[in-house]
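Hi team, as promised in this morning's meeting, here are the two structures we talked about. I've kept the exact order from the run log so nobody has to guess. The first one is mostly here for context; it's the second one we should focus on when we meet again. Sequence first, then the predicted structure tokens.
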Amino acid sequence: MAYSFRPADESVEAGLKRVARSQIESGLEHLRDEELPQEEKVHEIRKRCKKMRGLLRLVRPCFDGYKAENECFRDAARTLSNVRDASAVLETVDEIEIRFADELKKAALKPLRTQLSADRDELDETEIEETLADMRLVFREALDRVDGWTLSAEGAEAVSEGAAKTYKRAVKAMAKAESSGVAEDFHDWRKRAKYHWFHLRLVRKAWPPVLEAYADEAHHLSNLLGDHHDLHVLTKAAERQFGSRDETFELVGSLCAARQKSLADDALQLGRKLFWADKKAFEDEVGTLWQASRSEPA
């Protein structure tokens, strides 16, 4: 469980550096692995970037280097987003075909799959490899900077405020998504909910039986909202390829909309259970658990 603070950490700052090094070094290992397919490297690097941004957000209020480091990992992930999206839409087609197998005629989505596969195959592998080479430099330079990171707070104060800010933003994003029903708002909620999940993972050692279960539910919420977004991306891809009046687009659009409605309902139901407290109550709870875990006898 490298992606978590530990009661044995000398300080929050020491734990921050340990977790950051673990994530960055893991990313470098994936980049050096000649046996790992290019697509998997892209997936792993984007995952490390997101986890680093979650870590940085936890200590954001007391870390002056937050802005520069967050932008570093945000921009790194963005350079690889088109590669990941090209595969993700095909995976979503697979899921649609399985879920609606009884309603779909055989090969009904073949025109869409053929076009999306062609789009993925058109990606320049040499260009992707050059981008991955750039990522090696980005990660090595970031690793060199970690030793110089300093926090202006310690103990519960260093983690509770950042966790509470993310929690509050997730609550607001959920309310907006529920009110509007717009896919973009659900995607924004997903981003906030995912950072909340990361924060729960990072502080889970403060009370493992409870916080690990809570983190599992937050992970499930993130997956529901991720699937919701993937369906939106697929719908837009189908519209670009075939036009809004094409029968393939109409079929895909209707199936995606039906599945999105179900996912939204499930996500909102779970979200109301996860985001029941106000920001201050959540901040106090994190702080209390953190402090208590550091006061327990070894």
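And here is the second protein, the one for discussion:
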Amino acid sequence: MVARTKFIVIVILILSIFLGVGFYINKLANQYVGPPSLTVSEEIADLGTINQDKPVKYVFTLKNEGGEPLIIDRIQAPCSCTATALSEEKLLSGKTTKLEVTFNPIGFSGAVTHSVYIYSNDEKNPRKKIAIKANVEHLPSPKIVLSNNRWDFGLLSNGETSTHQVNIYNEGDLPLVIENIVLPMEVKFNIEIPVFPVQLEPGDEKELNFIFDSSGQEEGVFNEYIRMVTNDPYKRNLTLRMEGYIKDREEVISVSFLKGFIISPFSEIEDKIYETDLLIKNNSDINLNNIFITPSENYIKLSMDEISLSPGEEKLIKVSIEEESLIFFEENKAIQNYIYINIPVPLNISLEEIE
């Protein structure tokens, strides 16, 4: 009788084990159902306080909690300071993988946050946003900021010169040293030739003027570069670009901008420039009257909309944009507008009597 009882107990125990295992397996099978579903270990990873001179890594865990395979198409990090490395691109149901994000804090200071986007076949969230944040310790250094680093000369006749200005600011907390400025053959310093090295204390500003001479240049598009060497640890070498088009000297008038035209409410520079000077010169040997000047957009204002020029005469026209119009500009998007110049050229016609 005792043996029979023990046998029954053993059978019940074995059945209980099988039923438990079956229930657990069934539970696992039903845990992940439906389309692929991406989850991430954390939405924002806090790197804490870090130094500027050393990249920091963080590893996110990605998991597929759907019943179908998850395919990760790509990882996008908009900032070049952030690099990513993904272990696997395809995750079966319930599987995980590692996403390593490396942040290079060089050039940053204070609280920073950078986003990373995960593109996958998750139907509910095909573009998953995660982020890393950190407090970057400030490292005293010089910081060079230029009022502009690109000049468009527009259309120049062979032999014409064009003068442009750049302001240099030291927005750092150590002295900025401009060790040298290397000029191409066609560019010279105008007014003042600096003696290198040039030092700017924190908060100081220096103005430099350059003159471009198109004499002897071939007709067509040109690109020239000015190279500036500094002690800014993040901008040892800066390039100032000059571009335009040189044509044979045939035109009746010449048009040139005398300084940079910065329309940037997003600039780090406090004194934003909303105007430029347009120089119009009569290169012909005839009087040009009733020259009409019209902007392509209403928010571009001109100091004069009609001028007359005698041979060799030149006039300066102020071109400006009203500050309230800047709300229509999009950040980091270039906008190209035009100024139309209507030149009436005298045409002498004589009628001879026909016999």
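Starting points for discussion:
The CA atoms of residues 13 and 19 lie 10 Å apart.
Confidence is low (pLDDT under 50) at residues 265-271.
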